[in-house]
Amino acid sequence: MSKYNKLPKEAPLILFIKEQKEPLFSKKNRALLTDPMDDNNPITVQVLGICSALAITVQLKPAIVMSLSVIAVMAASNVIISLLRDLIPNRIRIIVQLVVVASMVILVDQILRAYAYDVSKELSIFIGLIITNCIVMGRLEAFALGNGVWKSFLDGIGNAAGYGFILIVVAFFRELLGSGKLLGYQVIPDLIYEMGYVNNGLMLLSPMALITVGIYIWLQRSKNRNLIEKN
Fold it and tell me: Which residue, 59, 72, 159, 231, has most beta carbons within 10 Å?
C-alpha cells in the first residue's frame, strides 16, 4: 500500500471521548481545582450558597457530610451534562439539568440514610435543597454545557470543594467556640472552664455564621486586594 493511501490514525477513545493532547493536569486544568478554593470561591467571592453556610454549620460533622454530598452531586452532574451537551435541546436545558441534579441528590440522600442515618436526619431538608443550590445549577449552565467531560469533572470538584471548605471553616469555629467541642468530642479541657471560661452561646446562633463568613471575606480581601470591588 502506498504511503499516500494511508489514512491518519484517529486519537484513541476514552469513555467515547477523543483523547486530548493537553495533559490531564495542565496548568489550566489545575486552576479549575485551585481557583475556587481561594480567588474564585463560590461563597466568599461569587456570594453563592450563603443559606446552607448559615443553616448547617453549627456543628462540624454535618458540615463535612454536606460538603462531601455536594462534591459528589456536582462532579457527577457536571460529567453527565457534559456528556449530553450536544443532545440537549436549548429550550429544555434547565429542565434536563434539574432532572440530573435531582437524581444525583436522591442517590446521595439514600446512601446517607443507609449508612449515616443520624446525620441524614440532622441535615433534614438541606440535602434535598442541593437541587436548588445556585452553585450547582450555575456551574452546569456556565461550564458543563460548553466544555468536555474531564474539565467539567474538575470544575465540579473544584467549586464543590471551595464551597465545602468555607462550610468546614465556619463550622469549626462555631462548634469550638460555641460548645467547646469538635465532631462531638470535648476539645477545651475542664481546666479552662474551672478558670472561668464560658462557651460563647452566640456562636450557635444563625447570625454568627454570616459574621464568621464576613470575617473570612475581610481576611481574604486583605491578602488579595484585587478582590475588592471598585466603585
Answer: 159
Phi, psi of 15 (to 5 degrees): 55, 40
Give the CA distances from residue 121 to residues 60, 112, 117, in Å, rounded to whole numbers and listed in that order.
15, 9, 6
Query: In the block, which residue shows the cell 470575617?
Result: 215
Residue for cell digits 493532547?
21
**How remote is the C-alpha of 67 from its chain's centroid?**
6
Helix, strand, or coil (residue 3): helix
Instruction: Say if CB 83 and CB 100 are below 8 A apart.
Output: no
Residue type for position 115: Y
Flag whether the pTM goes above 0.70.
yes
Alpha carbon of residue 227 to chain centroid: 20
For residue 149, give Cα distances in angstroms to 72, 83, 130, 156, 173.
Answer: 15, 6, 22, 10, 37
- Within the chain, where are the H helices? 27-34, 50-55, 60-84, 93-115, 117-123, 125-128, 134-142, 149-179, 190-194, 207-223
Per residue in 26-37, pLDDT tens? Answer: 888 888 888 888
Note whether 157 and 75 are within 8 A (CB).
Answer: yes
Written as nine digits, the cell of 48 is 453563592
pLDDT in tens, 221-230: 888 877 777 6
Distance CA 152, CA 146 (A): 9
Q: Which set of grid coordinates corresponds to residue 34?
A: 485551585
